[in-house]
Model the fold of this input.
Amino acid sequence: MTEIQAPPPPVVADVEPEEVAEGVFVIPDGRVPLVPNVGFVLGEREALVVDTGMGPRNGRRVLEKARALTDRPLVLTTTHFHPEHAFGAQAFSEARYVCNRSQRDELERKGAPYLEMFRGFGEAVAEQLEGVELVPAPEVYDDRASLDLGGVTAELRTFGKAHTLGDEVVFLPERRVLFAGDLVETRFFPIFPWFPPDDADVSGLAWIEVLARLEALEPEVVVPGHGEVGGVELVRAVRSYLEDVRERVRAASAEGRSAEEVVELLEPEIRAAYASWDAPEWIRFAVLCFHHELRG
Done:
């Protein structure tokens, strides 16, 4: 009998950040579940930190890595409110914390329930969440904000409901770098937090449109929420997948099948079509979300 290996703990790697463009660094996630790619953008006056990892221990590690790169004042931003991206913010008391208003509101409404949900994911996850204090960003914007870090500009943008209500991307026009958060993942099935009635603030249809807008930025380097750094082809791959699922669900739904019948039909087909992708548990939720959106 094959022994099932437990996933590694969700700990940001203690490695030297990799430079992916001039003055732009990433701690890679190593494809460890519940660990994000963490970014640093070094300007002449300030440095930007993108995402914190899950919980105060990871937050402190990210802060230490930032301080190893620069002694300049720090600005923190988070790509969305989910625990592995934003629940280490308390470690950054010295930094300005900026995000969009929808993300802050979502944290205030859903942060505590998500904290409890994630604590149920096992001892290794619960350990990283010990001592978490939810920190709403004091500084918010609505559609977009521009941060002049000194010699490099970080454009913070939000496009409305897609993966969450408050997804944020960070685009560096001078460097052609895009931090995409969980709107883009490399060889992972996109995460659909479709959990009605508790949380159904996700839209596959809108997500497709957002990805088209990200492609139009023509980034040369794309840092996904999870998975390896690449180019604009990463954005195209996720958009193509979502369009594929949409059309499969549309065709199956047109024959009068229920949501569960559509899942039963499509889940194995989709898994086989994307055999090299990880986290297939999210296929089901994508199908359910599209079914709801297409059928109303």
Notes: The chain has a mean pLDDT of 97. The two ends are 45 Å apart (CA to CA). The helical segments are 55-69, 83-86, 101-119, 123-128, 204-216, 233-254, 259-273, 281-295.
